[in-house]
Amino acid sequence: MGLHPWWVADGRATEADLAVLEKFVCDTRYVGEVGLDLSPRHVPPGSEARQIAAFERVCRACADVGGNKVLSVHSVRAAGTVLDVLTRTGAIGSCRCVFHWFSGSSEEIWRAIRADCWFSVNEMMLSTGRGREYAKLIPHDRLLLETDQPAGSDIPWDTNRVMGSLVATLGRLEQTLSRDVAAEVQANAEALLG
To answer: What domains are there in the chain, each with its CATH number?
Structure first.
């Protein structure tokens, strides 16, 4: 189940859709993609309050039913607010929160790391200096491979290529190839998804 912030922002997701998610979230372990997008590139102006209210209801519903739900969290120009909502609703402690291509500030990534969040990375993230630095900061046992193709991308998505890019990036950053990054990422996915 999910409620993408773009759908909330532009009105495609209605109050009825949100009510259905709240009612049936107990029947699934995986919830996503949910979160906030405050980029004017993707959402109409004035949608912030509507997005926050919907995300808060989703997080509260997930936290209330328990069951160690996995939340795939979309966060564009909103990492601090996303962390506030996850904390306020109790989802940060009762769910496994996965930041989907983290792009917040250094302070925000440290806050998410301290909260035991997980992080998925992709090629586009690893193509930037900040993205590579974030990949280095992420605890190895919280690192995942992002497997969806970003909206608007015309590059064919290839998880093997993404893994190769991650292995090369971490090898260069840590100046060691002794670790088996692919095996670690696979073990992380198995631990997360159970």
So the answer is: 5-193 (3.20.20.140)
